[in-house]
Amino acid sequence: MRVEVGRFTGADWEGPVTWAQHAQWDSIHRQDTSGWYRDCVAVLPVDDTLPEVLARISRAVGRYEGMRTQILPGPVQRLCGTGEYPVEIVEAGARHDFVVDEVSHQLRAADRFERGRQPFDFAVVTRNGTPRSVVMCVSNLAMDASAIGLLVQTGLAPQTDINPRDVLALQDGYRWRSDEAVAFWTAELAKVDAPFTGYRGGGGTLAAGLTSSANAARLARLAKRSTSRAVMLAVVAIALQAVHRGSLCLRLEVSNRHMPRLAEHVGILAQNTPLVVDVDRTRTFGHLVDEMWHGRMRSARHAMWSPVDLSAALDAAGLSQETFSVNDLRECGLRAEPRAPDPGRDYALHDLPGWPYQLGRCSIAFAGDATLLTLAVRVDTAYVPPGHVGRILRAMDSVLRNAAPDIRVAELVDAIEPAAA
């Protein structure tokens, strides 16, 4: 391995954070700062020469201010101006995929949250001296998953960009959206008795994943009815209903890129929005999937809000923001800790150190592709019993194994209770 030096040129700037940046900062500091600072890893295939690849990285870092924006105590945002950064060059030979996974893990583990400086890190993995992959490791305080996905899909070169100062100016014109969203959140959260609001004692986090090739195929078949995200939200809701037997409020990551001016912003726009779930056991799985689709659309309409205003409104109403967090990391270039199913088995249950990042008392995520699906659960053990991790994962696996559009929710709940016990 050797190290090349990348350089970027731009202007220094410091100012207030946007609503989405503030929400991300609040989520991390309110719930968990034990995770890794550079917590989002993406891999870009390349076929250029090494000088061309290094130049492409430097152009992206210099052009897209969100890539080099730090969120600091206050919170405030600071745009890093002219600077240098290391790019590791790692020769993989015939072990390309293994080395990419190893480099991804090493980059993520390099800095814990409080020690983070530069919000991004890069490595180039070569085969016989020729670049084959760029591993990009970025702090979730600099970019959200949609922005990273945009960079991956366009090879670090989206057509346009809007800088953090423009986002601040735009949101001032959409203050009414925040007022509307705060009212929506307050009304939605008043409907449920969130299961993780009481303090249990203890502390720390526990994360595990269940990887299955068969689940990927099942999800593809079920998604033909609606969308894969709606199907997975239905799966999560049924699994949690079996484990907790109470009302549910899921928190979803919404990209907030539906406005044309914001579509290609390389930075943070995503917000958490609520999805109150009523799991009616008399209805079919297909009905629940349809309800999830409509619920996602309703929640997405209320995804721009001021964290300060929201916290004040919820405190005044005596409501808690602590609910289940559900993230879909597929199709955006982010990588989970890879683990193939065990030989002779349909799935592998394994630890996922540091992933996904904690955004709630119980954080649930799915990652993978058309051939391999990873379900992941991470809990704050001060609020969630550690044993719930395996129970929730097995319950989600059982729902996918048995789900069909016309099957009753009650039958799915009954089927997974032995696995969740």
Fold and architecture overview:
This protein is of the alpha+beta class and 421 residues long. It has two domains: 156 residues, Chloramphenicol acetyltransferase-like domain (Chloramphenicol Acetyltransferase); 251 residues, 2-Layer Sandwich (Chloramphenicol Acetyltransferase), CATH 3.30.559.30. The protein is built from twelve helices and 15 strands. It is globular and about 60 Å long. The protein starts with a strand and ends with a helix. The relative contact order is 0.16.
- What share of the residues lie within helices? 25-40%
Q: H/E order of the elements?
A: EEHEHEEEHEEHHHEHHEEHHEEEEHH
Q: How would you sum up the global shape?
A: globular
How much is the average pLDDT? 84
Give the termini distance in whole angstroms: 48 Å
| Strand line-up of the largest beta sheet | 11-10-12-14-15-9-13
CATH architecture of the largest domain: 2-Layer Sandwich
Task: Decide which structural class fits the backbone.
Answer: alpha+beta
CATH-defined topology of the largest domain = Chloramphenicol Acetyltransferase
What portion of residues belong to β-strands?
15-25%
Biggest sheet descriptor:
7 strands, mixed
* Contiguous uncertain segments of 5+ residues: none
Rg for CA atoms: 21 Å
Instruction: Please indicate the count of domains.
Output: 2
- CATH-wise, what's the superfamily of the largest domain? Nonribosomal peptide synthetase, condensation domain
The CATH class of the largest domain is identified as Alpha Beta
Number of helices: 12
Strands, count: 15
Organism: Kibdelosporangium persicum
Protein name: Condensation domain-containing protein
